[in-house]
Amino acid sequence: MGTTQLESVQEPKYWHLKSVLNDALDSEFEVGEILPNERDLAARFGVARATLRQALEQLELEGRLQRRRGVGTTVAPPRMGVAVGPSANVWPGARLDTWNTVGCVEAVPPARIGGLLGIGAEETVHTIRRERVMRNQPVGAELLYVPSASVPGLSTMLSPASHAPAVLRELHALELEGEDRAVELGSASAQDAKQLDRLPGAPVLVVTTRYFVGGRVAAASVATYRADTCRLTFGDSGAVEVTHHQPDTRQAS
Fold first, then answer.
1. pTM (predicted TM-score)
2. Phi, psi dihedrals of residue 168, rounded to the nearest 5°
């Protein structure tokens, strides 16, 4: 059999370096240990710093490294499991929900969200921002979008403190018919990055969920998870699970 075009493509230098660094992380470094600076690493492996940065970025994306403000690049610790949803066909904010409400506003959503909800371009929705924290570490940031048509009984006289609970209470009065989820790789917005203790533009995993009532989308949520420390697994029940790195409190050697 002849050599295909794909087989003749040479492996990028940074990709080969990533494999070498991966082996070094397993054999020479401890969890939480700070890596040498880029200049020293580039000299050790005989590569340009640009090549080294590409390899380090790939290892960060794969969850082997973490870049921490004021600390540097460290070896990532083991992961701990965090379920995306306790069960199917449950409204956000229902019993056993582990998300915390941060705030709620009424505003025009992004065009993509308006398309998911099937609403007009200038129509406002109730937008609830929530966060998920585990062992004092941010795990996820979520925006839940609820059109006014889904909560017609909502009072127009709401205080900031009662806005989100009132929206969720009205949602829970509806009979949820089903939901679907989509997962994709994205980049952290400035607000999400702040909640997740990441830099804007950092790779994230985005889980978009649509909630159906009466054959239409009654609400939609966009949950953002750190891609450098999370992976998605599918259990026997079909539920999606996100695992997150457990923080390491040891001092780097």
1. 0.68
2. -65, -40
